[in-house]
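Usage

Read records sequentially. Each one opens with the input sequence:
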Amino acid sequence: MTSAIHPDGGAGTIATGRFDPTRLKTRQLALIVQLDIHRSVLRAADAAHMTQPGATKLLRELEETMGVPLFERHPRGVEPTWYGEVLIRHARSVLAELRHAYDEVSALKAGLTGQAMIGTEVTAATNLVPQAVALLKKRFPQIRINIEMEFSEVLVQRLQEGKLDMIVARIRNPDDLAELHYAPLAEAQHALFARAGHPLVKRKALSWDELAPQTWILPPKGNVMRNQFTQLFLELQLALPTDVVESSSLPVITSLLQMSDMIAPLAREPVRPYCIAGALEPLPFELDLKLGPAGIVTRRGDRLSPGARAMLQALREAAGFDTQGPDAESD
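and closes with the structure output:
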């Protein structure tokens, strides 16, 4: 139970004037964290590898520096005051940052090695992720990168299971945001594509009535694009296409498009190279398909390995995010 001592209760007077961080010791921060865990000076001192008198002295000096009581003493042990809870929270952050700094320095001394496991949906797989990987390998050629391309739903599950370090995906379930850190990217634009020279490409405009009877290539049922596509047809009170080929593989889809008169809804960015090469063309139709933005996703509170952190930084740089700001790493 938290102590009743509250900042408004006048239990202590906070020192005024400019704060001097040189008066704080790392051992003091480590001690108050252990005190919060064990609620006993003896057990906390043992966990912090110091004597009980030494721990008592460090705590007293820290309270004098801060000008407030940080713990209430009871016959059964100690409990943090409101002031103590604030300082403990920051002490944990400081110690975590120092551990990260040590890991990074050690990794750099040895020539950063290790691996990073990243998952991506198809749009990011054609541009953002390759840019980030190229940037990382230029800096740290010894890091081994494993890239998986899947639907967002699968990627989120694999991230939550700890099988991936980070993903570029959409989050459809708001409950997932409680345990995941999500930095949104710009939303992808979609269009209907067909082979170059397809009879429908030459038209000035197309209607849903003309498109519905075509042979469609669609993602399997349960995929976010398939769900949005189905919802769009239902809202327009149109019968769903019956002549359908299901595939989630971009190479398969683009090959089918090039060798037939099939059509497919696709994000513009991954198909751009095929259009530049003259293999595919967008149909003259405004496809109002809003899937929501994908984002760079990590687990909240997860401590990434040095290699994975380097991959995350490269990914954020490639996306144009601020790598030095408060949101530069997962929470």
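Summary fields computed downstream for this record:
- The first helix runs from residue 26 to 38.
- The two ends are 26 Å apart (CA to CA).
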